[in-house]
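In this supplementary section we document a worked example of the pipeline. Step one takes a protein sequence of length 272 as its only input; no multiple sequence alignment statistics are reported here. Step two produces a three-dimensional model, which step three serialises into structure tokens for compact storage. The input and output of this example are shown verbatim.
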Amino acid sequence: MQPYTVEELESKAKHIRRKIVEMVAAAGSGHPGGSLSAADIVTALYYNVMRIDPAKPGWPDRDRFVLSKGHAAPVLYAALAGRGYFPEEDLLSLRKLGSPLQGHPDMKKLPGVEMSTGSLGQGLSAANGMALAARLDGRDYRLYVLLGDGESQEGQVWEAAMAAAHYKLDNVTAFLDHNRLQIDGCIEDVMCPEPLPDKWRAFGWDVQVINGHSIKEILAAVAKAGEVKGKPQMIIAETVKGKGVSFMENQAGWHGVAPKPEELKRALEELA
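The serialised model returned by step three reads:
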């Protein structure tokens, strides 16, 4: 597959944002804010970065993506559907009884989901295990992990950070969706995890800080991370919760609330 241009990826990210608000509205529940903030990162990974084959979701040499902040499942589902893992019309079954598109990703239910997540803090540990498996099996696939900044209050995140550096897992690249908001408000008020760049460097990681809504910066950061040897890589992406929908942007209240019909209409107009 030929790489997409930055402009094409920006268009795909907007499409993913439309699908996020549509599916959460149809479900009547879900997490739009943190899904919208991560849309550009997930778009870049699934369309231009990761070595994957939707026709062969179990291909042993595929790159793996772990959504550690599992409540942002809508952004992952939209990307998987866009890449052809399942039909886009299935997105509207989000959270419906019997649907494989559960409120949090389930690797046993949906092709393309590499790890069942939702209990915060566990994704990086799982990715470390996959990265070690690649080393033992002599395979060159890479692990990409998406963490939340509120999730960084979890102790297991830092145990996993220490382990990844200890084992020199240079096939692990993590993104931190740094939108500064969590369900209860600002991360600084709930339990401040800052200074995050300094902490990740102190734990032995290569660290970059980028604009998480710039496709160009995301692609450049991933390329640079791929050249790092002997260290895992952390890309701290400065983002806006609810990005793309004006009344959701920077509003903690949109962490886990579905838009009403009139709000959905307004959101889709803004994302047209």
